């Protein structure tokens, strides 16, 4: 039987996933496919499933710690980027980056999406995790999304069905096998100049309060009810701590940055230490916001 890479020339073998993680770490995927269209994605995913090969989606890799041994099976990414106004709302392909969406929406006078300038992920990954910033989140804007199952069949899911919560949705629980291929967002109309100023202001606030221009995974932990993970981690003495090539950011204690060829193991060790210290000192159990993907040591 021909292998997946022989059947589909676009499928790469032993692809280093560090190339697809914004943190810049991670071992190889057995197979990797960056799909130019939804149709090609459906075809490759269906073929992999019929061959018994597990399929894992990845977006922009901005929220994912890929383990040093990599990911077994096929890792897929939707490269297709498109934004169109439809009768239901703004239809955005899952591969579209949130900052690009924020900038384009502002330029065209569509309001509501400016927060996306601070979320360096894809629209698909952001729907799954109900990404949010500055008081706005995906849940407040999404009308519906289109998904593919592992057999390559598509269907439409309404926002209500997604059961969004704080950085949470059913895609993390009941629908781990579904791949989001697009989302439709409800947007308002506003002066493009005002919106562009709004985007700029959010970006500046980001630069002032978070590590900037260095590889990170975004917020490592979710904020616990009524408190901030960053405050607790700082109070527990984690700020600036270095393990191997990873460091708890000296700017914001809920960020881990890649200072010197970090390995996933360095990040996991820092994560565990922070969790353990906060639990011991404050009785609060921090829940990771980042996704840990791949084969464990
Ligand atoms: C500097 C920095 C700042 C950040 N600030 C914020 C912030 O303000 N607010 C916020 O919410 N987040 C923030 N993040 C985290 C991150 O950008 C978001 O969580 C983003 O939505 C993740 O999108 P992604 O495409 O990178 O997902 P990935 O990291 O690629 O994937 C995350 C998870 O989603 C799954 N997935 C990816 N694409 C799909 C798809 N199409 N269908 C189904 N599942 C999929 C993956 O399998 C994985 O489990 C920040 C990250 C960084 C590095």
Name a few traits of the molecule.
Uridine Diphospho-n-acetylenolpyruvylglucosamine Reductase, domain 2; alpha+beta; 3 domains; Uridine Diphospho-n-acetylenolpyruvylglucosamine Reductase, domain 3; Uridine Diphospho-n-acetylenolpyruvylglucosamine Reductase, domain 1; four-stranded mixed beta sheet; 7 helices; five-stranded antiparallel beta sheet; 297 residues; binds flavin-adenine dinucleotide
Task: Give a brief rundown of this model.
With 297 residues, the chain is of the alpha+beta class. The protein is 26% helix and 24% strand.
Question: What does this 3D model show about the protein?
Answer:
The radius of gyration is 19 Å and the shape is globular. The mean pLDDT is 96. The strands form six sheets. It has a five-stranded antiparallel β-sheet. A four-stranded mixed β-sheet has the order 1-2-5-3, with helices on one face. 26% of the residues lie in helices and 24% in strands. The protein is α+β, with helices and mostly antiparallel strands and 297 residues long. The relative contact order is 0.14. It has seven helices and 18 strands. It folds into three domains: 4-78, Uridine Diphospho-n-acetylenolpyruvylglucosamine Reductase, domain 2, CATH 3.30.43; 83-209, Uridine Diphospho-n-acetylenolpyruvylglucosamine Reductase, domain 3 (2-Layer Sandwich), CATH 3.30.465.10; 229-293, Uridine Diphospho-n-acetylenolpyruvylglucosamine Reductase, domain 1 (Alpha-Beta Complex), CATH 3.90.78. The longest helix is centred in the C-terminal third of the chain and has 19 residues, at 264-282. The protein binds flavin-adenine dinucleotide. Flavin-adenine dinucleotide binds at residues 22, 56-64, 78, 94, 118-122, 124-126, 128-129, 131-133, 171, 179-180, 216-218, 291.
């Amino acid at each position: 039987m021909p292998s997946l890479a022989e059947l589909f020339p676009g499928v790469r073998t032993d692809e280093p996933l560090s190339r697809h993680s914004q943190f810049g770490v991670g071992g190889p995927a057995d197979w990797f496919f960056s799909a130019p269209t939804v149709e090609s994605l459906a075809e490759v995913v269906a073929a992999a499933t019929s061959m018994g090969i597990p399929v894992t989606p990845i977006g922009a890799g901005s929220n994912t710690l890929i383990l040093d041994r990599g990911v077994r099976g096929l890792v897929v990414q939707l490269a297709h980027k498109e934004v169109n106004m439809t009768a239901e709302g703004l239809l955005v392909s899952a591969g579209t980056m949130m900052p690009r969406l924020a900038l384009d929406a502002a330029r065209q006078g569509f309001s509501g999406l400016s927060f996306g300038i601070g979320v360096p992920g894809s629209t698909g990954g952001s729907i799954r995790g109900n990404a949010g910033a500055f008081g706005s989140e995906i849940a407040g804007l999404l009308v519906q999304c289109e998904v593919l199952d592992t057999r390559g069949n598509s269907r439409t899911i309404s926002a209500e069905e997604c059961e969004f919560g704080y950085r949470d949705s059913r895609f993390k629980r009941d629908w781990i096998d579904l791949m989001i291929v697009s989302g439709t967002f409800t947007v308002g109309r506003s002066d493009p100049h005002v919106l562009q100023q709004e985007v700029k202001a959010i970006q500046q606030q980001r630069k002032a309060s978070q590590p900037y221009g260095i590889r990170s995974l975004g917020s490592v932990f979710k904020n616990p009810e009524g408190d901030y993970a960053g405050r607790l981690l700082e109070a527990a003495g984690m700020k600036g701590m270095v393990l191997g090539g990873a460091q708890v950011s000296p700017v914001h204690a809920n960020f881990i940055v890649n200072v010197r060829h970090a390995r996933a193991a360095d990040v996991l060790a820092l994560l565990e230490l922070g969790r353990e210290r906060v639990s011991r000192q404050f009785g609060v159990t921090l829940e990771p916001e980042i996704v840990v993907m791949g084969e464990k040591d």
